[in-house]
Write a structure and sequence with these properties.
The chain is an alpha/beta fold and 392 residues long. Helices cover 39% and strands 14% of the residues. It is built from 14 helices and 13 strands. The chain has helices at 3-13, 20-30, 42-53, 69-77, 95-102, 120-130, 182-190, 199-215, 222-226, 248-278, 329-332, 342-350, 362-373, 386-389; strands at residues 35-39, 59-63, 80-84, 107-111, 133-137, 145-146, 149-150, 157-161, 174-178, 285-287, 300-305, 318-319, 351-355. It has a 7-stranded mixed β-sheet with strand order 1-9-8-5-4-2-3, with helices on both faces. Strand 2, helix 4 and strand 3 (80-84) form a beta-alpha-beta unit. It is globular, with a radius of gyration of 20 Å. Bound molecules: pyridoxal-5'-phosphate.
């Protein structure tokens, strides 16, 4: 996010023109949507999507690994969950597990992890077969494409996030996009969305992007660790809160973000490709997903650490979502079955992510490889047999 856009968001926060109607128009055209509802977060947008598609007490098929907010949204919507496993080599749905989870579901959630496009046609076919609604959670898909369309254009209902590090905006907020007759349902839930009118929410959006710009720089990687209350790079479960709309300042940032999302993904993809090329020298570290592709959002580069070493956060490498979603206490209360999810469990302990943003230099990538090529020094306890644990 450039300083000029941040400046115009500050003007909005101070009472300048309201960009929300323009954002709705832009989302409708950029994501082939009939209508769009702006929310205070991607989690709220997903919660409303689940409410519309499955309703309280309804059944939703959901990936067993990912952002904990998936569960929070489900709890907020009052739905029950049937988890499908995730293939640790590709981060795509495990086919057999997905097919089993879809039976009896009113809605199926499809996620594009780190902007890697999910097998969209497979999900569409499955939803059609079971008469289920397809919810596309594109919260992590900013800047990704599938064919000639942006990720976020493919569900009956699609969810976007404008939160920190999501590739669009960064000041918080989200959107629920509806296509065809689902636009009528959007109108119905709109009345239940409280306005975001507080000054504090406006300035939080602006200060959030300023802080992120500063802390994302490699020289500042150590800072978040020294300010634990920021909880940066951590994954925590949040109880569902109020259902609110987006602040005007966050909408201003999101508007600029939507316009520039595809172009912003290009250097991230190049940074990911440059890192992948170096991984041959990193001991036991492999890229997941199709190695180099020209259509993904590349929010961060997901890599598997075969040796499950402590993540070298000082060089920007973070552990990813540290638990399989079915194991969260909040999920256990609403989980319908006990389908095994070994892929998700493996990802929870072995997945790491490498930054791909503009401030990462060739020297930083070299530092990452160096750290991992000294892997043995860092206390390798056990080797994993990946082939044996994936896909159950
Ligand atoms: C797949 C997915 N869905 C939903 C969310 C929630 O978005 P937000 O942070 O805007 O609430 C996230 C956040 O990381 C996510 O990764």
């Amino acid at each position: 996010m450039d300083w000029r856009t941040i400046g115009s968001a500050a003007v909005t926060a101070a009472g300048g023109p309201d960009p929300r109607a323009a954002l709705v128009d832009r989302l409708r055209s950029a994501y082939a949507a009939t209508d769009a509802l702006l929310t205070d977060s991607g989690t709220t947008a997903l919660r409303l999507a689940l409410q519309i598609a499955a309703g309280a007490g309804g059944t939703v098929a959901m990936p067993a690994w990912g952002c904990f907010d998936l569960v929070s949204a489900a709890v907020g919507a009052g739905v029950r969950l049937s988890f499908y496993d995730v293939d640790p080599q590709t981060l795509a749905a495990d086919d057999a597990s997905l097919a089993a989870a879809a039976v009896g579901a009113q809605a199926i959630v499809m996620v594009h992890p780190f902007g890697l496009p999910a097998p969209i046609q497979r999900f569409r076919d499955l939803a059609a077969e079971h008469g289920a609604r397809l919810i596309e959670d594109a919260a992590m898909a900013g800047g990704g494409q599938y064919g000639d369309k942006a990720l976020g254009s493919f569900g009956d209902l699609s969810v976007l996030s404008f939160g920190r590090g999501k590739g669009i905006g960064g000041g918080g907020g989200g959107a629920l996009l509806a296509r065809g007759s689902f636009a009528n349902s959007l109108r119905e839930v709109r009345a239940g969305v409280a306005a975001s009118s507080s000054r504090a929410a406006e300035w939080r959006a602006v200060l959030g992007v300023v802080a992120h710009r500063v802390l994302a720089h490699p020289y500042a990687y150590g800072i978040p660790r020294r300010i634990p209350m920021l909880h940066l790079g951590e994954t925590r479960y949040h109880q569902p809160g109020d259902v609110r709309g987006i602040s005007a300042a966050a909408a201003r940032l999101a508007l600029a973000g939507v316009i520039g999302a595809a172009a912003a993904a290009e250097p991230r993809r190049a940074a990911a490709a440059a890192m992948i090329a170096k991984l041959v020298r990193a001991d036991g570290l492999i890229a997941v997903g199709p190695a180099v592709r020209d259509d993904w959002g590349a929010l961060r580069l997901p890599v598997l650490d075969r040796q499950r070493r402590e993540s070298p956060r000082h060089v920007g490498v973070w552990p990813s979502y540290p638990r399989a979603l079915p194991s969260l206490p909040a999920a256990q209360a609403i989980r319908l079955d006990a389908r095994p999810t070994p892929g998700a469990e493996l990802l929870a302990t072995a997945l790491r992510t490498v930054p791909t943003h503009a401030a990462v230099t060739e020297r930083d990538r070299e530092a990452i490889v160096q750290w991992y090529s000294r892997g043995a020094v860092h206390g390798v306890e056990h080797q994993l047999a990946f082939g044996a644990t994936s896909n159950g």
